[in-house]
């Protein structure tokens, strides 16, 4: 591993644990977009909220979808949870977000260096690229590795009142998600819109 | 969000012969409260993009990929704000996965304006081949799409198609043909 990478000093955490810690902090109907695969499985397992949106495809679009929500509802904090493999698919989105600077958007990257769900193959970036350095180089200056769980919670608290978009990266272990999202895209979208106050149920 | 007005504006029922195609597109977007316009640029779309940037009603910005733009307007729709994506034929060709796994199954009224390259005087063989993939992909998902060739039909087709997308919660592709826009030719 590149000696310049500060990931060496970060603790390896667990996706479900840190997702649960995040969800426990959400007191103002914050929106959460869960990226494809284990990322949204653990969001689901942490307890469904009406403001959660779960992706069932379109790998790499968690941040763009969250950006759209953030632009539509600038007074609501919008979180996006994405895996490192997914983010690698859509690195250009980081520059788009940096250019638009939505202060209510908070991006969280779960980095285990592998495509866990397809058989734990390493990503091309594993041990080579530094996601926080990529984000900073894309113009997202408010980007940081979480050193451990307490540091993650501190970074989330800071992001809640930040004046620019925030990106928090965490090293996580190779465990699969602990639940499985109910794969009903129309209900997922409709309930999310209810949760955001865009629509009322029939 | 309020359901879109069921009626097409009376303006849409007759030709606006004194307006350019891009004026009509911009005004139709505005009338339908579509304010978020991510795009991947195209030479033919340049006057439309320029005028959208100049109008503060719109939030207009470039994205690195068309998929990204689709994600953005999908999120915005769920958050109560309407958007449309501008792209070229070759950009549409990158979207099959996103259409089939996001816009269609989640019932997102994704509005796409596609500047058509690859036909009626195309000079780049690759563009002409990419163009041939577009309608089969749209048809394979049974997506609504219209190829607009005439200025006097543009406002009607665009206005009605946007309203249909919103009320039926289904994507639509509006293909801007060289007969409408002039297209891009080798000597330009």
Give a topology summary.
The complex is a heterodimer of chains A (202) and B (188).
Chain A: H1 15-24, E1 31-34, H2 38-45, E2 52-54, H3 62-72, E3 78-83, H4 84-89, H5 92-100, E4 105-111, E5 114-115, E6 121-122, H6 131-137, E7 143-145, H7 149-160, E8 166-171, H8 185-195
Parallel strand pairs in A: 1-2, 1-3, 3-4, 4-8, 7-8
Antiparallel strand pairs in A: 5-6
Chain B: H1 21-31, E1 34-39, H2 46-54, E2 59-62, H3 66-78, E3 82-83, E4 85-88, H4 89-92, H5 96-103, E5 111-115, H6 125-140, E6 144-148, H7 151-168, E7 172-176, H8 178-181
Helix pairs in contact in B: 1-2, 1-7, 3-5
Structure in words:
The complex is a heterodimer of chains A (202) and B (188). Helix content of chain A is 37%, strand content 16%. Chain A has 202 residues and is of the alpha/beta class. The longest helix of chain A is centred in the last third of the chain and has 12 residues, at 149-160. Chain A is globular. The termini of chain A are far apart. The model of chain A has no long low-confidence stretch (mean pLDDT 95). In chain B, helix 7 links the parallel strand 6 (144-148) and strand 7 (172-176). In chain B, the strands form two sheets. Chain B has a four-stranded parallel sheet with strand order 4-5-7-6, sandwiched between helices. In chain B, 49% of the residues are buried. Chain B starts with 20 loop residues before the first helix and ends in a 7-residue tail after the last helix. Chain B has 188 residues and is α/β, with parallel strands linked by helices. Classes of the chains: A alpha/beta (202), B alpha/beta (188).
């Amino acid at each position: 591993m590149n000696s310049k990478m500060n990931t060496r000093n970060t603790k390896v955490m667990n996706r479900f644990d840190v997702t649960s810690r995040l969800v426990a902090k959400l007191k103002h109907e914050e929106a959460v977009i869960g990226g494809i695969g284990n990322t949204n499985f653990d969001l689901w397992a942490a307890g469904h909220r009406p403001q959660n949106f779960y992706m069932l495809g379109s790998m790499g679009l968690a941040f763009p979808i969250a950006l759209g929500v953030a632009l539509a509802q600038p007074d609501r904090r919008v979180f996006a949870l994405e895996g490192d493999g997914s983010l690698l698919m859509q690195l250009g989105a980081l520059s788009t977000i940096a250019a638009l600077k939505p202060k209510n958007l908070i991006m969280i990257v779960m980095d285990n260096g592998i495509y866990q769900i397809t058989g734990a193959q390493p990503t091309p970036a594993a041990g080579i690229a530094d996601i926080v350095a990529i984000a900073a180089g894309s113009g997202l200056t408010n980007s940081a590795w979480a050193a451990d769980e307490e540091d993650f919670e501190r970074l989330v608290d800071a992001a809640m009142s930040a004046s620019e978009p925030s990106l928090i990266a965490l090293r996580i272990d190779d465990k699969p998600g602990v639940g499985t999202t109910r794969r009903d895209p129309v209900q997922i979208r409709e309930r999310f819109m209810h949760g955001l106050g865009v629509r009322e149920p029939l | 969000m309020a359901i879109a007005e069921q009626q097409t504006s009376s303006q849409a029922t007759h030709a606006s012969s004194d307006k350019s195609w891009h004026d009509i597109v911009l005004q139709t977007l505005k009338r339908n409260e579509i304010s978020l316009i991510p795009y991947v640029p195209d030479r033919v779309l340049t006057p439309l993009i320029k005028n959208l940037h100049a109008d503060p009603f719109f939030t207009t910005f470039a994205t690195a990929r068309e998929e990204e733009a689709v994600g953005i307007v999908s999120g915005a729709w769920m958050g109560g704000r309407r958007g449309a994506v501008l792209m070229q034929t070759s950009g549409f060709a990158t979207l099959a996965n996103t259409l089939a796994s996001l816009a269609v199954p989640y019932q997102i009224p994704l509005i796409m304006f596609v500047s058509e390259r690859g036909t009626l005087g195309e000079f780049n063989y690759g563009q002409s081949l990419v163009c041939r993939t577009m309608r089969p992909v749209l048809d394979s998902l049974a997506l609504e799409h219209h190829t607009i060739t005439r200025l006097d039909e543009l406002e009607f087709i665009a206005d009605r198609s946007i309203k249909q997308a919103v009320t039926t919660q289904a994507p639509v592709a509006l293909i801007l043909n060289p007969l409408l826009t002039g297209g891009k030719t080798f000597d330009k």
